[in-house]
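Sequence only, no structure available. Ideas?
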Amino acid sequence: RFLLLLLHSMTCHIAFRLVLLILVSLSQSKASPSKNIIRNIKREHSSYSWVQRQHRGGDIHESTQTINNETSKMASPRKEQICIIGSGNWGSAIATVLGRNADRLPQCNNDVRMWVFEETVTLDDNTDAKLSEVINTRHENVKYLPGVKLPSNVRAVPDLKEACKDATLLIFVLPHQFLPKLLPVIRENAHPSARGVSLIKGLDFDTNTKLPVLISKSIEEVMGRNFKCGVLMGANIADEVAKQCMCESTLACDFGNGQLNEQTL
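Reply:
I predicted one. Tokens follow.
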């Protein structure tokens, strides 16, 4: 049954491409209305082509070139402002990756904010200090990721409003029990075009039906405004990610814009 479905899908795809080629040929020999039809067909199926080429292992840059051209008008010129919601072991580990990438990518603001649940830590000399101040001066999360240097452009911010102010990319990486109190504040302060990626492991449960609910969907529901939240998961260990060891992760997202999907990746 699977092979039959696969064959049917391939047949439909080939048929669509043949029809498209015929229409392109006609558009070159007839008046301009047919050109508008072709343009509309390409626009409607641009995301479909991207998924198919990605599945077939095509080159990412080449396969998304058409989509980038089609969606460039929709893409915001605003630079990406990254905010990491959480600063534990996993949050600090992913901050090492996000900090390095934000520093080298021209479409990103260099400043990566990391919201820190403020607490007092005892240092090696037996003095006490605020965790956020230690992170910003030593560039190390001495409590949750000791021994690993964070990029200097990763800034610990204990005030949630300040951390997510006008953020366009929200990285959720904290215990999901904290979300109900945090999400309303994030919703009011993040940029209206913001999107999210959840690195939160586990599931939530509906209080009425008792059925499992994806945490990414819970985030989308509370954030509102057509907010979209992708998910990053993989067979990895935070310490290995922070130390740049070989790791595997999969990003699942559909932000309704091929260029945004590519930019997030």
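Residues 42 and 117 are 47 Å apart (CA to CA).
Hope that gets you unstuck.
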